[in-house]
Write a structure and sequence with these properties.
11 strands, about 290 residues, extended, 6 helices, Translation_prot_SH3-like_sf, about 25% helix, Ribosomal_uL24_C, six-stranded antiparallel β-sheet
């Protein structure tokens, strides 16, 4: 009984904290959170009702719980920690949860709406690590490597191209360091490089005989392979070699588990050769 009361009290506390945080949000972020606020308020009211009802019932009476999807505490906490992006949010080169993005999009600030040409995710042809050529701008005709892709704005950023210079680390006694910073380029202003002749070409997604989806140059019919991308930890999966402490894919995918209807205790007893003739009986705790 005490463990159940403590669980109900913990649920009530978490629910009320989340509701208070949602109520204290700004006016611009509140409309997108109203449905969630109502759901959490209903859950909190249900938990409080369970708490009041449990005191008047017998200790052996079982109290029905709400649906599992509504009582998943980790899901509620993840909902509260998730970054909620308003409809009028203006995406840039910074990720929405970073301090730089929050400084450019403070709560309550209305920025000019930016119209972005809609593009399906499966039609996006330029990937990070590709070599492209600039078709317009001050660096027209130059080729470079794609280092960043911003799909919300149809932008790509090239290494060392389309740069502008600025000062960083300005202080009272120093003017800072003068650096070159890359600026994003629209996707329609770049073209992929055909590996056969190193010239820009229009591409189209097609399927091979094996069913693999590849990019094909419309001018030469040559397949443009996908670039080898380095992960954040510096590992290139296609070039990685297993070391003495790595597990091979064959050993990882090998089926070594044999399903059984026995419990963990019964399997351990069978492995250790322990004989137990007693049987489990239903027990009650008051």
């Amino acid at each position: 009984m005490f463990s159940q009361d403590r669980q109900v009290l913990l649920e009530c506390t978490v629910f009320l904290k989340i509701v208070v945080n949602l109520v204290n949000t700004s006016a611009t972020q509140r409309p997108s959170k109203l449905p969630r606020m109502l759901t959490l308020a209903q859950l909190a009211r249900t938990a409080v009702t369970r708490k009041r009802t449990s005191s008047s019932l017998n200790s052996r009476t079982l109290i029905p719980l709400p649906p599992r999807s509504a009582m998943r505490l980790t899901a509620l906490l993840s909902m509260a920690a998730r970054v909620v992006i308003p409809k009028d949010y203006r995406f840039g080169t910074n990720r929405p949860w970073t301090a730089a993005a929050k400084r450019l999009n403070p709560p309550g600030k209305k920025r000019r709406k930016v119209f972005v040409e809609p593009m399906a995710a499966e039609d996006w042809s330029v990937l990070r690590g590709d070599t492209v050529e600039i078709l317009a701008g001050k660096d027209k005709g130059k080729q470079g490597k794609v280092i960043q892709v911003f799909r919300h704005r149809n932008w790509v950023m090239l290494e060392g191209l389309n740069t502008h210079h600025r000062y960083i680390g300005k202080g009272v006694d120093s003017r800072g360091t003068y650096i070159a910073s890359e600026a994003p380029i629209l996707l329609r202003d770049v073209a992929l490089i055909d590996p056969s002749d190193r010239k820009p070409a229009d591409v189209q997604w097609k399927f091979t005989e094996e069913g693999e989806r590849v990019r094909v140059s419309l001018r030469t019919g040559r397949i443009i392979p996908k670039p080898v991308v380095q992960r954040r930890d510096g590992i290139v999966q296609e070039q990685w070699k297993d070391g003495p402490k790595d597990t091979s894919p064959e050993d990882t995918l090998a089926k070594t588990y044999v399903p059984s209807l026995k419990t963990l205790e019964e399997e351990v007893m069978e492995t250790l050769g322990i004989q137990e003739n007693r049987r489990h009986r239903r027990s009650y705790w008051y």
